[in-house]
Amino acid sequence: MQILLLGSRNPGKLSEITSILEGSGWSFSSLQEFGHVGSAEENGVTYSENAIAKAQFYSTSTGLIALADDSGLEVSALGGAPGVYSARYAGEHASDADRRELLLSELSKLNTSDRRARFVSVVAIADASGTVLNISEGICEGTLTSGPRGHGGFGYDPLFIPDGYTETFAELPAHIKNLISHRALALAQTKQFLAADLRR
Predict the structure, then answer these.
(1) DSSP state of 82
(2) Nearest-angstrom CA–CA distance, 61 and 197
(3) Closest alpha carbon to 158 in 138, 135, 136, 142
(4) How far apart are the first and last CA of the chain?
(5) Beta-strand (E) ranges in 127-163?
(6) What is the pLDDT of residues 136-185, one digit of tens each?
(7) What pLDDT does 200 receive?
(8) Considering the chain, what percentage of its residues have pLDDT values greater than 70?
(9) CATH code for residues 3-199
(10) Is the whole-model pTM more than 0.70?
């Protein structure tokens, strides 16, 4: 069975990815098994640039085929912010709660009822030479709450209600989120690629 390195140290993200890619015919390894490997720089201006840079960095650093994703929350009233800077929105060492608090604070300064937002995810896979093998994208549209709700998920999940639902990503059962989220939609395409790649 081929090994796919998951280029993340975020426990919540790793759990989501392994759950969604289960049954693809691959086994998974994570960066937690490679303590000597540093963190890839994320200085791209698009999700694709960051996802590719991370996949290439981790694949060439470990000699394994690597998967990496870059995702973000785009808030309509904030002109698409925080976008690609979602993870660094409140500073390099800020917590998820810090980022959520800043986002709600910025929204409260605006005299608007516009709560539209969307999550975007791009997933890239690169081989040990750094060659990009596959890129997939997923988008989930929704609205923002006025305060955090729920204890599941991570990041901005407690603020985001996907269209067609009344619960936030943090309130929805994991199996539902793993069908409809931005990352789930991108990884569904990734899973098709991985399964097809094994049959070649």
Answers:
(1) B
(2) 22
(3) 142
(4) 14
(5) 132-144, 160-162
(6) 999 999 999 999 999 998 999 999 999 999 999 999 999 999 999 999 99
(7) 45
(8) 98
(9) 3.90.950.10
(10) yes
Catalytic residues: 70
Residues making up the chain, counted from first to last? 200
Q: What is the mean pLDDT of residues 49-56?
A: 97
Tell which residue, 137, 136, 184, 135, has the closest CA to residue 157: 184
Rg of the Cα atoms in the chain: 17
Triad 14, 17, 22: Cα angle to 5°: 120
Q: Which two tokens stand for residue 27?
A: 């086994």
Q: For residue 174, which phi and psi values (nearest 5 degrees)?
A: -55, -35
DSSP tag of 157: G
Q: Any idea which of 15-24, 29-38, 56-65 has the lowest mean pLDDT?
A: 29-38
Residues 6+ positions from 158 with CB-CB distance below 8 Å:
100, 145, 148, 149, 150, 151, 168, 169, 170, 171
Q: How far is CA 159 from CA 14, 92, 109, 169, in A?
A: 21, 21, 17, 8
Q: Name the residue ranges covered by the structural domains of the chain.
A: 3-199
C-beta of residue 123 within 8 angstroms of C-beta of residue 67: yes
Residue among 117, 154, 124, 168 at smallest CA distance from 16? 154
